[in-house]
Amino acid sequence: MGDHSHGSPENSGTVAKADDVAQDRFPDPGLPPHRPRLADRDPRAAKRHERQVALLFTISIIGTLFFFVAYFVLGHLGEMTFAELRVQNAALGLGTAFAMLGIGVGIVHWAKTLMPDHELMEMRHEIRSEEDRQDAVEIIDTVLEESGIKRRPLIRNTLIGAIALAPIPAIFMFRDLDRTGNTAHQMIDSLRHTMWDKGIRLTRDPSGTPIKASDVQIGSAFHVIPEGLNETEHPLNEKAKAVVLLMRMDPAEMQISEGRETWNVDGIVAYSKICTHVGCPIALYEQHTHHLLCPCHQSTFDLTQECKVIFGPAGHALPQLPITVDSEGYLVAQSDFHEPVGPSYWERG
Ligand code: FES
Fold first, then answer.
1. pLDDT reading at 232 higher than 90
2. Are residues 227 and 126 in the same domain?
3. Of the residues 128, 153, 175, which one is the last residue of a structural domain?
4. Is the C-beta atom of 296 inside 6 A of ligand 1?
């Protein structure tokens, strides 16, 4: 395989020659001289670094085990409160972080302290012949030999353990995306609908108290959930789809498209709070510009133009919830949203 002898440890400090003109204009600075590290000179230092690398891989294993404890022990205490859910999420995140960091930092430490650190260089070229392939196999064998993975069973065994365990949490998390046993089609269909329906009152999040039209002043914004959400079987799932922002503006400033003339109550409008990019909750309403801002990737929606995207990566306007008032003056939905809320990963047609 080509001329990789240029980069062998004995030839460290040389590079393959470029053409003469370029050589004249850009003199080859060569490679810096090789400086032996402590572990190269002192076997006891090498042994110490080996134990440190193994410790980092062991931390990864402990992180994965911690994930399992948080997942199975905390996850099976029955119906969890928000506070307990937060604790469990923090524990799952910590376990996963240590599992990944342990492997990453361990490999970097291993490479920096124990693996050979002479620099290799070869010209880039295509692999065409059987001979080239043989050369490539030889290089891989050399890398395995020089990495010391065969000579250092402590590192090898802890690395195998860490790498074997680390992906398992991802399997559990993907499985949890749906525990209902629904088909993919049913799952997508469930995303098309929220619990909003004709006559359901708009209530404050999280107290659940209903909102009268007279409570909503120009410039104010309410975080809203459907009445009865907290009594549903899976309130968090329902909230993730149905949460809404309620605002009031001067009707003269609103551009209303055909068919939506009756969806607001004297300038009070309700829009899905779920960003149409990748689903972050929209958090900021600028009352002077009437812009809604998503904190994740700065998508900006213009309330005066039915929450059309005016900046950022979101692909669709925020869906509007048609609202009206009931006989007692409380704000209620006229129906569900007329289009799916949230990210547009899948076709809306
Ligand atoms: S999720 Fe809102 S901009 Fe990306």
1. no
2. no
3. 175
4. yes
* Final residue of a structural domain among 175, 206, 240: 175
Within a domain: residue 339?
no
Cβ of 297 below 6 Å from ligand 1: yes
User: Which DSSP letter does residue 284 get?
Assistant: E
Is the pTM above the cut of 0.90? no
Residues 163 and 233 reside in one and the same domain = no
Q: Closest by alpha carbon to 273, among 186, 202, 335?
A: 202
Residues 197 and 159 in one domain: no
Give the whole-angstrom CA distance, residue 53 versus residue 159.
9
Lowest mean pLDDT among 6-15, 32-41, 177-186, 235-244: 6-15
Bond before 226 cis per omega within 30 degrees? no
Element (H, E) at 138: helix 130-147
Residue 281 Cβ contacting ligand 1 at under 6 Å:
no
In DSSP terms, which residues pair with 286 in a beta bridge? Answer: 291
pLDDT > 90? residue 63:
yes
Out of 278, 291, 293, 301, give the residue to mutate to test ligand 1, the one with the largest number of ligand atoms within 8 Å of its CB: 278
Q: What is the share, in percent, of the chain residues with pLDDT greater than 90?
A: 53
- Res 304: pLDDT: 96
Q: Which residue range is the domain that position 273 belongs to?
A: 189-333
Q: Is 277 in the pocket of ligand 1 (CB under 6 A)?
A: yes
pLDDT in tens, 13-58: 444 455 566 667 777 777 778 788 888 889 999 999 999 999 999 9
Among 245, 271, 274, 280, the mutation site with the greatest number of ligand 1 atoms within 8 A of its Cβ is 280
Together in a domain, 261 and 314: yes
Domain assignment present for residue 343? The answer is no
Tell me whether residue 180 is in a domain.
Answer: no
Q: Are residues 207 and 328 in the same domain?
A: yes
Which tokens hold the place of 217? 């002043």
What is the distance between the alpha carbons of residues 8 and 174, in angstroms, rounded to a whole number?
Answer: 46
Counting the structural domains of the chain, the total is 2
Residue 241 included in any domain: yes
Q: For residue range 103-148, what is the model confidence (pLDDT) as tens digits?
A: 999 999 999 999 888 777 777 777 677 888 888 888 888 888 877 8
Strands 323-325 and 331-333, sheet pairing = antiparallel
